[in-house]
Amino acid sequence: MTTAFAASAREAGDPQLTPPRRGGRRRGWTPYLLLVPGLLWLTLFFIVPLVQLGSASLQSQWPGAPGYYYRDVNVGNYVDALSSYGVHFLRSLAYAGLATVLCFVIAFPLAYAMAFKAGRWRNVMLILVVAPFFTSFILRTIAWRQILADDAPLARTLNALHLLPGGHITETWVAVVAGLTYNFLPFMVLPIYTSLERADPRLLEAGRDLYADRLTTLRTVTIPLAAPGILAGTLLTFIPAAGDYVNAELLGSDTSTKMVGNVINSQFFTVLGGYPTAAALSISLMILILVLVLGYVRRFGTEEVL
Amino acid sequence: MATNTREAHGDLVLENVTKEFADFTAVDDLSLVVPRGSFFALLGPSGCGKTTTLRMVAGLEQPTGGRVLIGETDITGTRPHERPVNTVFQSYALFPHLTVRENVAFGPKRRKAADAMRLADDALELVQLSHLAARKPGQLSGGQQQRVALARAVVNQPEVLLLDEPLGALDLKLRRQMQVELKRIQSEVGLTFIHVTHDQEEAMTMADTVAVMNRGRIEQMGPPERLYDLPQTAFVANFVGQSNLGVGRIHGTDGDFIVAEVSDTKVRIPKQRSEIHDGQVMFGVRPEKVRIHESQPVGTGNDVRAVVTDVSFTGVATQYLVTVPSGANWTVYEQNLDVEPISLRPGDDVWLSWDPTHAFGVPVDEDGRKAALAEDGA
After folding, report:
1. Domain range for residue B326?
2. What InterPro entries does the annotation carry (chain A) (predicted)?
């Protein structure tokens, strides 16, 4: 903008420069014009609903008329929500955190193998990582229910070996975390793979040449080189996992493994008069994740990402 | 094991080292000794096995046969971090996430040196980059990165320092500067430098000893002057400087000379300067040893008629391309010393002469024939 104005001011003083003026002006506006569709979309489907959600979270219920609300600044909704469902928040963070760590533990060696060792199998491995996306998220999670079911081979074998304390895999936190890990794994693999694939293999050789054994090279060279990908992968895994409710719904129990997402879901759709609570929970979750992510990025962030 | 091999010291010895990959032999039964503290160059065209040799010394590749020793210590099979060897990589391979100082301190830190940072600062001073210590490698120019890479290797005081085409990415002027600089640093630190390059001028300016490699073998090894003055194979004659070659048959001797006939012209080669003493021989003489005359010279011993095909004036010298009776194209350098230069044009008939003590004889092999043929085509 500034340059466009400066340019036209200069041109006004110099008649010889008049012809390129229109071109210069058009160039000045083009980026903003290109932004319009995106901004419209964002305004309609993100900013407006967000404001609405914020205002819903502060509404009060008409006395004696369940399901009807009036505009208010009722902070009590937040107090209620957080005091009644604090445990669900903690559970969400714990499950999402555990799933993120598991995803990293599985994804890093996989991405490393794909980037440095796979050779001509690299593309096959990439396709295998992405292939699950060809089936719906819900279907895949339902499939996990079958895999983990009590009469399926896995649970049977574990039961026969007396390795399954409660007798079930489904209806436990293990199933929920496993589902989250499975569903978000590609979001961890792909960014890490991308940053490892970009790294010059000679850097790893240089590490070994400079007296670092394999493990030290991994710690001091490989992982720092993959840092942007690790950061992106953990965010792409943790954020949606913390707000997820499908895995807890389909693989978890009705009582002991509910996450915030499940509470919001039922407050919105099944509990009469639950709207303000659901909205307050949503906003709280958003703020909580935002604060955690900002802290995380400030601590581990590299200039390449943010 | 690790500390033992890491403290090895002495000459670098390669004993019958062979490296076979799935479908070809990169290094073929190579043996050599690099004396401690010398500046050694491995010179050869790309694909000759010089980089593979270097990587085997570094431990980044393992030989499929033979042994690598430093002094009395066998380091074959040890890992790169267990060897007192450091590499300056072709692409520098500086760690982008570390500052210049941290890059240089990387090695000392891994070896648990208490004063890693001070060592790094000293090394940066040696390459005159102290003022850039806090920068990231991405913020440096190619020449500066090159020096950081050098400092990062030198700081460890390795027994052997390997340089893999270290100047390849630099422009000509910077390359000349770095050649002088590398030489200075080598004599200052007194480490064994092994320099891999395909640039014969670079190898000759810097190294005490040059080994010319071709197809996984060493063709000839020696001080640069000797390699240039008396090549032992046609490949060396052409790869180290230029040579005017001709295939001939030996007829007899004349005092200290062998007499050979090349395309009906009798040429003489000093006995001690020929690898071959009967049968077919490849005769050679360096372009600057050949004089060009407008009429037949008297009493020079070796002379041959030729036709000028090209004249290029380069300032200090004039380069003539001439066709000799065998059909080969020869090159002649004439220093522009005379006030009145010879004025020759393409198509002129000339006589060439040379002092026969400068001639050399090498075996006739495929490389030589090819080289002679290539000159025909030129």
Report:
1. 242-374
2. MetI-like (IPR000515), MetI-like_sf (IPR035906)
